[in-house]
Structure formats: C-alpha cells, structure tokens
Design brief:
Order of helices and strands: HHHHHHHHHHHHHHHHHH
Radius of gyration: 26 Å
Distance between the termini: 63 Å
Shape: elongated
Number of helices: 18
Largest sheet: none
Helix content: over 70%
Structural class: mainly alpha
Amino acid sequence: MDIDKRALYNSLRMNWLIDPSIEVDEWQVENYRDMSMPLIFSKLREFGFDFNKESFCTVAEGYDTPEELTESLIDQEQVIPEVEDCVYLLAFELWRRFETDKPCLSVFCDELDHQIFLYDRNQAQDVEDIQDVLANLQVILDENADQGGDPIEVLHSVNKGCANDIETFLYDFITEQVDNHNFSYASELLDGFIDYVEDDKWFEFLRVRVLTHSDPESAAILVRQLAEEASVENDLQFNLELLSEMVQDGDLESFSDLVLQTSDLLESEEDFQDLLTVCLDYYSCQDQENEEQQLMAIIEQRSKNVITNPFNKEDLDLDKLFSIVKQ
C-alpha cells in the first residue's frame, strides 16, 4: 500500500471543504482527526476488527507503518475492496495517535498537509506549528540527502505522500516572510531548502529580495547573474518579476537586455502591456522623462485593447519600445 493513498484522501477532503458540491461518499471526507476513539473502534468493528487501544497497539508492534499494518489486516479478514480504503483511514488515525514512537513518512506528510491547509485558510492556532513541521521536513530531506540521495529526487519522494505541492508552498511561504520583512527567517528557509527544489531560479529571486535589504551590492550581482541565465530559461513570468525587481536599482544595460529577451516570449496583449508598465516604472525611477512620456503614450493608446488578444510580434509599438530601451 503506497503512502500516496493518504495524500489522495487529504486532497479529496480539502477540495470538498472548499467546494462542498463535489460528490463524495461520507467516509471519504470525514474528519478522522476529530473523531472520538469509541467511534473509530465501532466503525472498525463493522468491518470485523474488534480493537481497543491496548489490542491495537499490541498488533501494531509488529509493523513499521500504518500501510503495512492495514495490508495485513485486510489480508487476514479478507476485507472486500469497496471498504479497504475506509479501513485504512481508520487504522491510520489510530496509528497517528498511538504509535508516536514510530515516525514514518506517511504520518509526517499527513501532518504537513494538515498544517499547510490550516495555514492557507488562516486557521492555524500558532505560527510555530507550521515552522516546526518545516523544520522537521528539512531534517528528513537532509538525512536522506546525506545518505546519498539526489536532493531533488528526495523532495519528489516526500511530495508523493502529500496532497500539496511542497515546492509551491515553500515559495509562497518564504515570499510571505519577505513581504512581512522576516528576512532572517526567510534567509534560513532559503538556505535550508534551495538545494531540494527543481526550479531554483524563483528561490534565488527571493534571495535577491532578502539581500536587497541587507547587502545591496550582492543583490545587484545576483540580479545580473539571474538576468544572464534568463536568456536560456524562456520563462516570461520570471522575466517580468526580475524586471520589476530591477526597477529601483537595476543597471540600464542589464535591464535593456532582459527587456529585449522578454519580448520574444510575449504571447498576449496583456503580456505586452505588463512589459510596457515595468519599463515605465523603470524609467520613472531613473527620472528619464523623455522615455517615460513615450511609454505613457503607448500604454494610453493600447489601454482599450482586449488583453486576451494574441500579441503580434510585428506590432509597431514593439519597435517603439525597442527604440526606447536601446537609447
């Protein structure tokens, strides 16, 4: 039995909580965490398992994970396939409560999903809960990497047991720390997780934002490095974010080069208007009124265009933008 079975349950329950119109069976979305022990035991008795706390713990002694235990129970009682998953969810919850001295990946991933869900819905009782689970995640990743595992594959392996995408959550969570000026903690998280993420340029971008407040010179060097690497990445949204970060202090040559590279990636009218706006912000911060006026005129002229329309790479306004940034 794979650890992703618990992740599938968590995913279904979280989606159902967001959209209760989703058609589900009651057992698929029940809150097993809040279920009383007598109720859990009574439900298991319906499937032929007569447990109490002591007898469950005695049986669990012979297994390392709730998945191994459940497979054995199902085989012994010849549980019909239609209720196997329900038995698993009940046994998993008992294991989570009683077998705390047997840390296993599926239980950790379940706790990570739980804390992410609470945090995203502003229901967390204490911010230290998510901080603790992220600290434990780093320990798990480091231990596996130290044993010779490829860092990116190590995170992928953990992510198989989670309903949430860990890399996406880490980026969003660290971004929030930066936005709230929690720079020390953001830097700690970046140092701890950047080796494990697949798309590390976004995390290096967050490092730029941290360094901007503590070491502007190092931030400027890293910005130039990211701008050079962006020429082969072909990631429009990243380029726009990086250009936005360069608005205040980016050197004109690097900014202009990245604008030209980004122009090849434009797909819609909205993309082009976003690029124009970033350029306007840049020249405004540089007090270059001539370029600022030219860009404002282009933006005003295009303000009534349908932003979802495809962008024509032969558009004359693109040539106007080129002439401005090449000056």
